[in-house]
Amino acid sequence: MLLNLNIIDLAVVKTLDLDLEKGMSVLTGETGAGKSILLTALGLALGDRADSGYVRPNCKRAEINLEFDLADAPQAQQWLKDNELDAEQQCLIRRIVNQDGRSKAYINNRPVTLQALQELSEKLVEIHGQHAHLTLLNADEQRRLLDSFAKTQPLLDHVNACYREWQQTSKELANLIKAGVDQTEREELLRYQLEELQQLDLSNFSYAELSEEHSKLANLGEILSSGQAQVDLLYESDQQSVNQMLNHCLAELNHLAQFAPELNEICTMLSEAQIQVEEASLQLRRFLESQEADPQRLETLENQIGIIQSLSRKHHVTPDELPELVGKFESELDSLTHSSERIEALTASAEQLLAQYRQLAAELTKQRILSGKKLQQQISAMIKELGMPQGEFLVDISALDSATPKLNGKDKIEFLVSANPGLPAKPLAKVASGGELSRISLAIQVTTSSDKTTPTMIFDEVDSGIGGGIAEIVGQKLRSLSHNRQVMCVTHLPQVAAQAHHHLYVEKNNRSDITSSNVRLLETEERVEEIARMLGGVNITANTLAHAKEMLFQSNSGL
């Protein structure tokens, strides 16, 4: 459960450190006092989208810290363990929103993504907003509520996984069948292109080597004439070769070395150079002697390079990419050649997946029908308690018109209501008034939440449009939910506030230039005064105070 809420510089809250207890807690206060900002803070800490407008004026950032006791949250404990974020029995959540709107999130002092924060939050807190009765009119929300009550999520996941696999298989099958119309023409083109490319002997293909050999043969005359000139210059010239000059230089330096021994090292280096020049000359001569003009080979290379360049331009690839192109064409041709086999295999797979989907969807329908009967009985009984004595709530489950598989099963789920006897049940949007819709919504939220494992539940003015004795029943229902979990409720109704175990009062402070709000836990006498204010408005009489005391006494809230 939530142990502590700490807020710093968020909107109208400068600083707040609030300890929370088990059971049912209510938040009350004048309109505009700042009750909504507490829920905003909780939403931000639990992963809602951040905005720079949340930062208090003249402050650099807003910060929200939550501390949870995980003794009653085994799913959250397991999630933290799986994500290596566990820290014994407690969990600390921290969210920081900067002036530029960017935010950071931390779990147990370790940075996490917003998605990770949202995943954990679902296992810790469930928030029911004041506009829940409006979303109740949405068909997807009605299906979600029924599936949540029926605990069909694992089966629903199987149904949807099977649907997506069937959809992908069917799409591939349709594409193959469509491609089969032009298959013959495409096969002929691919075969022609492959024959054209395979004349290049691509198994031993290297465009770089071909280009190098062609360049050498094309310039062989220059290589031979210039190469022989270098042999003469290095070694074989009768006039003056490098070798002769080195001989002369060595003779002179060897003579001088008799008088200057330090010249011996230089003589050694020149002697080695003479040996290297001789060896280079011999190798160059052997290379030139091995070269032979081959006009026929040169012509062959020129033709082959011309074909390569032509095919490269034709297929819009570089010469080195031609082998890869052949592999691509061969793969496509093989696919087309065996497309009939592939079509047959995909057809069988699609039929098998369709049969599996229908079986799973039928089981899902069965569970929904069984749970739908229980849900409509419980909600019908509750809306009678909530001031609709003749009201009947129905969960209508019918098959979708389409035989094609659909996401979330093959059921059309619709919530119907009959507010008066003798009248047929009709969809909520066509029957229920605003007040009736609020009651039905509250009945659904309480009913579908009664067996959930979420340790903390928050209700934000879900009792709007309700008053009198019905409001007291609403308070009792919310209090009953708190027997095995923590319940927090923002309310304007004294009947609901009187049912709480703990009463938090939100008040506005206008004593400085910037308005701020504060929250404090009310003691017994302060609770009486706050409930009297909620009952009587501006002028609080002795009778009003007596009525408030009586309400608290009857609710067994501690007096």
From TrEMBL:
The question of whether Nucleotide-binding is a record keyword is answered with yes
Q: Keyword Amino-acid biosynthesis on this protein?
A: no
Q: Which UniProt keywords apply?
A: ATP-binding, DNA damage, DNA repair, Nucleotide-binding
| Domain RecF/RecN/SMC N-terminal positions | 14-509
Gene3D superfamilies found in the cross-reference section: P-loop containing nucleotide triphosphate hydrolases
Q: Which domain of life is it from?
A: Bacteria
Q: Which residues form the signal peptide?
A: none
Q: Pfam family example for this protein?
A: SMC_N
The UniProt function text for this chain reads: May be involved in recombinational repair of damaged DNA.
Question: According to its UniProt record, which protein family does this protein belong to?
Answer: Belongs to the RecN family.
This protein's name: DNA repair protein RecN
Q: Supply the source organism for this entry.
A: Candidatus Methylobacter oryzae
Starting at the broadest rank, the lineage of the source organism is:
Bacteria, Pseudomonadati, Pseudomonadota, Gammaproteobacteria, Methylococcales
